[in-house]
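About this split. The held-out portion is used to measure sequence recovery: a designer receives only the structure tokens and must propose an amino acid at every position. Recovery is the fraction of positions where the proposal matches the reference. Here is one held-out target exactly as it appears in the evaluation file.
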């Protein structure tokens, strides 16, 4: 009986507060200068890439060749992105390079354009690509919806949805679940997620979601990049 009560209390604690292991707690202190520097490098990489991107109702157009895009990136930002990946729990066979980053973005842009051509996605004026049959629904505490962009996926979670989602991710981080299940839980319907995400990674996602969700009653926004790095904030 005592074991059952303890399990129930543990589940409630996970749902509301999350599990803070040594690794994930270290990442939760992301206000430090070095973490800000790493995240700023991710932003700069995307700002550089965005200069070569234009949108239309037909999809996403890349206006320069791959070599020109690669030469525009700064190696220091690439190094910082690799450090950010490590801190967030991403385990890669090889470090990211200028070429591998550009290849990853171009490949996923091609996939998005294919979905636009097939009528699965439509392009909004802000460059977001949404399900052509999407009927966005709003709930108390913010909006819950997904939007695709050339750089990855943006997920909006209401207060209640974010809490439930974080609990699910924390459970999966401890359960040694199959990669496909973990990738689907984190990214939603988005194919081609590489085998680089770890239990620490999804626990970090969950704990950042719980942290930002606790700051307001409007829910959270999480940006999931094609490089698998992520950034979380309140709605």
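Reference sequence for scoring:
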């Amino acid at each position: 009986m005592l074991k059952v009560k303890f399990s129930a209390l543990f589940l409630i604690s996970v749902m509301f507060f999350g599990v803070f292991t040594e690794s994930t707690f270290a990442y939760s202190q992301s206000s430090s200068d070095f973490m800000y520097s790493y995240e700023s490098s991710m932003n700069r990489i995307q700002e550089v890439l965005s200069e070569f991107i234009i949108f239309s109702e037909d999809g996403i157009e890349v206006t320069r060749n791959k070599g020109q895009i690669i030469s525009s990136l700064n190696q220091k930002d690439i190094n910082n992105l690799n450090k950010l990946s490590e801190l967030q729990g991403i385990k890669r066979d090889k470090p990211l390079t200028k070429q591998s980053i550009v290849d990853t973005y171009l490949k996923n842009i091609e996939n998005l354009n294919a979905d636009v051509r097939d009528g699965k996605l439509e392009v909004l004026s802000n460059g977001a690509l949404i399900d052509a049959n999407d009927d966005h629904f709003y709930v108390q505490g913010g909006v819950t919806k997904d939007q695709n962009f050339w750089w990855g996926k943006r997920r909006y979670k209401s207060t209640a949805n974010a809490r439930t989602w974080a609990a699910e991710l924390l459970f999966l981080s401890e359960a040694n679940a199959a990669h496909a299940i973990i990738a689907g839980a984190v990214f939603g319907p988005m194919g081609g997620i590489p085998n680089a995400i770890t239990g620490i990674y999804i626990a970090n996602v969950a704990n950042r979601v719980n942290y930002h969700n606790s700051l307001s009653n409007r829910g959270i926004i999480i940006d999931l990049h094609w490089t698998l790095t992520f950034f979380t904030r309140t709605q």
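Annotator remark: Residues 17 and 210 are 7 Å apart (CA to CA).
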